[in-house]
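Reproducibility note. Readers wishing to regenerate the assembly model reported in the main text can use the exact inputs given here. Chain order matters: entities are listed in the order in which they were concatenated for prediction.
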Amino acid sequence: MELDNEMSKVGQAGARRFSSIVLIVIIVVLALSLTALYQAWEAIQAGDLTGGYYLLIGFVGLALSTYMLLQTRRRIKRFTLETPPITTIIVCPKCEFKNVRNFERGDYILKDLGTCSKCEGTMMITAIYREVPEKRKEEKLYP
Amino acid sequence: MYIMVREIEGSLLRLKFIRDEGRKIAIDTIKEIGAPKTDPSDRVDQFMEYVTIPPESMDPAGVVWKLEHILDIRDDRFKDEIKLMAPAADATNVNNLENTLEAAAALNVIYKVIRHFYILGKKTLSLYIIMQIQMLLPLIMREAEAYASALKAFSHGQPIGDGAGALVAAKLMHGHRKKKIEKDCVVAKVPLDGRTAYVIKAEGPGGNVGKPGEAIKHVIEEYDGKIATVIMIDAALKLEGEKPGAVAEGIGAAIGGPGTEAYKIEESILKYKIPINAVIIKEDIGDAVSPMRKEIFDATEEAVARVNRLIKEKTKEGDAVIIAGIGNTIGVGQ
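Running the prediction on these inputs yields the following structure tokens for the assembly.
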């Protein structure tokens, strides 16, 4: 338990340190890239050929810092546990009246749910499932 | 090495978050359905630290029965603990809570193992310790996320992908008289195309896998081995690239777990030289413990059709067959 708390502190401190270090690096790279771009602009105006190098450094730095910024944002966004929607299908086997609703605690497949509102039949849960949206990207990975 | 340590640290934080969420879900579920008189948090923490020591296998003779005995004691102990934590829970909810707490305990173990290697790697500054854990992290994270989904499914009593086999058996036995058999299983005598099918599954709708091996052995012995074939239906792990819910057929005891049930089935069919067929529904580890995907649910219909076809092709009228739907029957009645 003591070690757990220690790890918790290390982890939390690590997460904070990680974020602040990354942020500082991103800001420094961003500032340097903008400076390089400004230098490039000045050099090109003056007809100096080294402006091309500054331009290249500036754009690479800008792209890198933007990418890293997006990565840190993505990391923060992913820190949740998703609850997928679960569907319960209720069917009357006699008149085939179908009712689709969200899952409720106590539902189970083949559970009788009383008399059908359309006829005298017994309503029954015939299916409980979650639907996963198809990933088009995955299909491209293999033939 | 610095980058790898940082990566492990990030994953460890996520694991800790998942573990803590799991613990919270377990405690909330106990409070919601168990109406405990005292705060169950301490007992849940104790439960998450339970260890099961496997039997010594230096002399392997009889190790199956020793393992089974240990697992039975473990199961009874878990159920007793849950009854103390949640006195108002009925049998179905006790089973669901047991599964919920087991998933929470699994998350705790994963977190602690990764934390162990992380701290050990940092203490020893060993690149190899850090590297091996960093290389395995994507698979470990996948498993942890699967357990996190399982936890929610168990706490709500939703059917999971692993229950595909049990669902096939439930569809076949629905509307027929069921009899309780052996530990937490039910059997129904179902007429199928002039044959008599003894359909077996774990008793639902609580989270339960039962002892299908024991149940199959019981039915075989009851009919003096006069069984034309045994057909087992179970969920099986798919390979990457295969579609979830793909149905395949084969030979052998389609059952996972620690191996005690598979052993009993193999012993029984060998004694009477009974052929055994398997129908498997493919899914990945995430789908197996998460709420059942539509593709897997739809695949159970195909599995029913395959079972019917197998019976027609492999047996003749008047024969007796055993159909066993294997898997956790949470959220599946009969």
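We highlight two features of this model. Chain A has a mean pLDDT of 78. Strands of chain A lie at 86-91, 98-102, 112-115, 122-130.
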